[in-house]
Amino acid sequence: MTEAKRIAFRIAVFYIISGAIWIVLSDNVSMALSQQKLQLYFFFQRYKGWLFILVTGIIIYILVHQRTYRLLLSQRELVMKDVKLQEKTQHYQSLFQYNTDGVFEITRDGKVVSVNPEGEAILGFKEDDLKHMDLSSLVPENEKERIQKYFFAALQGEPQIYEITLFNAKRVERITRCSFIPIYINEEITGVFSILKDITESRKNEELLISSEKMSIIGQLAASVAHEIRNPLTSLKGFVQLMDQTKTYDEKYMEIMMSEIERINLISSEMLILGKKQDVDFVRTDIAEILNQVVLLMKAEAHFHSAKLKFNNKLDNPVFIKADPNQLKQVFINIVKNSLEAISSDGIVVLTLSREDGRVRIEVEDNGVGIDEERLSRLGEPFYSTKEKGTGLGLTVSFKLIEKHGGTIDIESEKESGTKVTVTLPVID
Ligand SMILES: Nc1ncnc2c1ncn2[C@@H]1O[C@H](COP(=O)(O)OP(=O)(O)OP(=O)(O)O)[C@@H](O)[C@H]1O
Ligand SMILES: [Mg+2]
């Protein structure tokens, strides 16, 4: 029975029962009065009907008022709740519709339910196309396994964030930052929201910054490298002149000449490799070899600053990391260059390579001017430099590159005593 029927039924029952009681009572009263007070009896007979209507009228008014008031109140509460719900829905709808990131609602079996305008713009597909297509066709073959892993983890209730390259409608690769967020409804995960940001342009700018910073270091190293090459050339010239004068062939001289030529070859090759425009390629890399090459190049710069540059390799066996060799060289050249530039006299810069559980640790320690606390906290900020000719990009780029390699950089320094830069990188088998 509905609430309205129940109320009407109760009022009707009340009316019938009170009517019946009134009939029985008023009859008894009439009987008693007819025998004793005739005048009162006529009066009662005349007005008993009106009395009944008045009393039941008042009672019915009170009852109906009470019930309908409660009913209307709860109805009004319901309407208010509905309005609030609609407002909330509009809130979320705005977040979805006007989001500057692409938002996709995806079911447990990987089907798109809805997508916002930015999502359509990033991928170049309309919502209807996306609803009917296999999303995995947007993912390059070698990335499918990875994205599936993230999707299933999100379905287990763990939100995921990662970077991935996707194809748009024109089959052009876009670099995106993507997250999967589980959708809980009644404590059950019914699918995921995927939030997508196109970072292709900012990634390109970053790469441009890294490569122009690299060209800037090469420019800065050129003078000292040319100087470094001139020394063996002078000695070669001396030996050739000697051999020309004496017209003799001396094996001892020949050996020295060969080693000088080899040194020129090594330094100039290193410079060329560093300057070559290459695609970023993460390969299995021997970290000691990278540091040896950095030391070879930076020896010239150290001579230029009349400083000593030492490499202390504490590893017993070669240790490999996954890295882009050129980018790592760029980092360590930047760090060593900063150390050499911080040195005034009796300068010494020591590179120490060691291993600690699962990571390699490279320390670059100098006895230069040091950095005070206020400046220490600003290191890595783009264009922050205390040098007349510094770009202030050396450390910015180094931080970025080490982060890309899954590593860390830590800088400790004491004013007037020196600075220690510690880089750690994850080791591979
Ligand atoms: N080993 C160090 N000793 C003292 N100061 C340092 C050292 N390394 C970095 N710094 C400080 O950090 C600042 C930023 O370094 P960063 O390499 O980013 O730029 P820069 O060296 O000034 O310019 P560029 O790298 O283009 O030559 C430097 O200007 C310097 O003040
Ligand atoms: Mg620098």
Which key phrases capture this entry?
seven-stranded mixed beta sheet, binds magnesium ion, Beta-Lactamase, Heat Shock Protein 90, five-stranded antiparallel beta sheet, rod-shaped, 429 residues
Structural summary, described in words:
Residues 88-158 form the PAS domain. This protein has 429 residues and is of the alpha+beta class. It has three domains: 3-96, no CATH class; 99-198, Beta-Lactamase; 203-428, 2-Layer Sandwich (Heat Shock Protein 90), CATH 3.30.565.10. Helices cover 56% and strands 21% of the residues. The protein has helices at residues 3-36, 38-97, 117-123, 127-131, 144-155, 200-246, 251-275, 287-304, 325-341, 373-376, 394-404, and strands at residues 102-107, 112-115, 160-167, 173-185, 188-198, 283-286, 308-313, 320-323, 348-356, 359-366, 408-414, 418-428. The strands form two sheets. Strands 6, 7, 8, 9, 10, 11 and 12 form a seven-stranded mixed β-sheet that branches. Strands 2-1-5-4-3 form a five-stranded antiparallel β-sheet, with helices on both faces. α1 runs antiparallel to α2, α6 packs antiparallel against α7 and α6 packs across α8. The radius of gyration is 43 Å and the shape is rod-shaped. The protein starts with a helix and ends with a strand. The model has no long low-confidence stretch (mean pLDDT 91). The site of magnesium ion has 5 residues, from α9.
